[in-house]
Amino acid sequence: MSYQYDLFVIGAGSGGVRASRVAAAKGYKVAVAEGSALGGTCVNIGCVPKKLFVYGSEFGHGFEQAAGFGWSTTGASFDWSVLRDNKTKEIERLNGIYSNMLNNAGVNIISGFASFVDEHTVEVNGVQYSAERILIAVGAKPFIPEFAGSEFVVSSNEMFFLDELPKKALVVGGGYIAVEFAGILNGLGVDTTLAYRGDQLLRGFDQDVREFASEEYRKSGIDVRLNTDVKAIELADVTKPDGERIVHFKDGHSETFGLILYATGRVPNVDKLSLEKAGIETGKNGAVKVDNNFTTSASSVFALGDVTDNIQLTPVAIKEAMALIGYWFDGKEIDFDYDNIPTAVFSQPSIGTVGLSEQEAEKRGLDFRVYQTDFRPMKHTLSGSTERALMKLLVNNADDKVIGAHMVGDYSGEIMQGLGVALKAGATKADFDATVGVHPTSAEEFVTFSDAALKPKK
Ligand SMILES: Cc1cc2nc3c(=O)[nH]c(=O)nc-3n(C[C@H](O)[C@H](O)[C@H](O)COP(=O)(O)OP(=O)(O)OC[C@H]3O[C@@H](n4cnc5c(N)ncnc54)[C@H](O)[C@@H]3O)c2cc1C
Ligand SMILES: NC(=O)c1ccc[n+]([C@@H]2O[C@H](COP(=O)([O-])OP(=O)(O)OC[C@H]3O[C@@H](n4cnc5c(N)ncnc54)[C@H](O)[C@@H]3O)[C@@H](O)[C@H]2O)c1
């Protein structure tokens, strides 16, 4: 049976771009369909524009702290449209780079949303394309619960294109996106409330990190409200759909906000795919089910990245794509290692983490010890800020291996990349101790932990 393409990729995001580019470079005839902008979520409405907004927002605190270092910043003001539009220009530049990269690799870029006709055929804009292999890399989309007035909220998608910033905003949720956007808004001068229905933000992170970060967010000016849930939302004035919203909370009180962001998770983006036509099985929230080799229930169809609802991070989608390339071209069975994946939350202060949390180590029944410290970073001895940093190292007693590293504080994402290598390589506490520190940094705390920093056992 002959097909038009060796590989048809659906979705030119983090995973799809990597898979199509490398497969084409290795000699496959490849097409990629993209219904929106090249680069996917991360480049257009995720990691990249978010980080640019974080940089913009950090100046807000920077100006406050500059006086202690001798700077006078009277008259500094912020223009949202400049940040928003410069960000958009930069993203358009990246879109162009992605387009060139794919074209140069010989990938045929098809603009439009694809859907399955059968397990070897997809349709885009009414045209059918056949392929020996099809890769689903369509990512995820925001999930907003249904309730009275849910149409008056925005998701992270809209946050990148707001006409103007509100004076007062409510962010609902307690995960990565909620705390990152609460930090962005707060730094840009918006009166920001972060409401989370549970006991503590950032479920799944180390409990000390969660509590410490939450307190730091409060100190930075965010009104963090735990055990708080929204019942209904209505317009303050029905003739002004873009105007203020009244939020009725479940505890009975009501409050007015100019903008409400729901950051309540993301679900696989499978609606437009007609997966049933190719006999592709899905699980919770429509996640495409795959085996170890990212093969779906249809043997010619593969899936990776956020659409499989595993770990939703760009470097994970990219590494999965590279593993799949190895499987296709070198016949290497995939045994993807999801342990020790470093990750950062770009809140203010930021969080970096790799390996096990204390709670996860306990759940696994490990015998381990914890080194922990919190301190005022050197910068804040002059800045006037009361911000503190937290560092924590978990060590397995049986073999002295470091099994978890956690930090709340400036540069923790940058620091965690190196520690990720150390944990992956199986470094022991003795290896950390034998490493010379970089001075003066916060990071050096990770290689100078002594018994004095041991956390008492519960
Ligand atoms: C606000 C935000 C901030 C984030 N920040 C970070 C971060 O700092 N670090 C990090 O590691 N991760 C971050 N992420 C997560 C990261 O963006 C995702 O994990 C990553 O983009 C997943 O890659 P993917 O290839 O699975 O899908 P995506 O990058 O989402 O790409 C999927 C593509 O498929 C297209 N598509 C969908 N359906 C079809 C169809 N039927 N036909 C054709 N095309 C289709 C979409 O338009 C999209 O371009 C963030 C996410 C968000 C929302
Ligand atoms: N820095 C990064 O690497 C980064 C940044 C942003 C997003 N991401 C990825 O994108 C994923 C999605 O981010 P996210 O923040 O949307 O999801 P999340 O899963 O991290 O957090 C969702 C939050 O919403 C809450 N929630 C769910 N349903 C709710 C409801 N009905 N009412 C109130 N609260 C509700 C959850 O309890 C949770 O706190 C993340 O898990 C992460 O993998 C990564």
Provide a descriptive summary of the structure in words.
The chain folds into three domains: about 5-140 and about 265-330, FAD/NAD(P)-binding domain (3-Layer(bba) Sandwich); about 150-265, FAD/NAD(P)-binding domain, CATH 3.50.50.60; about 345-455, FAD/NAD-linked reductase, C-terminal dimerisation domain (Enolase-like, domain 1, 2-Layer Sandwich), CATH 3.30.390. It is built from twelve helices and 21 strands. The protein has helices at about 15-25, 40-45, 45-65, 80-105, 155-160, 175-185, 205-220, 315-330, 360-365, 380-385, 410-425, 430-435, and strands at about 5-10, 30-35, 110, 115-120, 120-125, 125-135, 140, 170, 190-195, 225, 230-235, 245-250, 255, 260, 265-270, 300-305, 345, 350-355, 370-375, 390-395, 400-410. It starts with a strand and ends in a 24-residue tail after the last helix. Helices cover about 30% and strands about 25% of the residues. Strands 1, 2, 3, 4, 5, 6 and 16 form a seven-stranded mixed β-sheet that branches. Strands 17-18-21-20-19 form a five-stranded antiparallel β-sheet, sandwiched between helices. The chain has about 450 residues and is α/β, with parallel strands linked by helices. Helix 1 runs parallel beside helix 4, helix 3 packs antiparallel against helix 4 (about 80-105) and helix 3 packs across helix 6 (about 175-185). The model has no long low-confidence stretch (mean pLDDT about 95). The longest helix is centred in the N-terminal third of the chain and has 26 residues, at about 80-105. The relative contact order is 0.12. It is globular, with a radius of gyration of 24 Å. Flavin-adenine dinucleotide binds near residues 12 and 50. Nicotinamide-adenine-dinucleotide (NAD) binds next to helix 6 and strand 17.
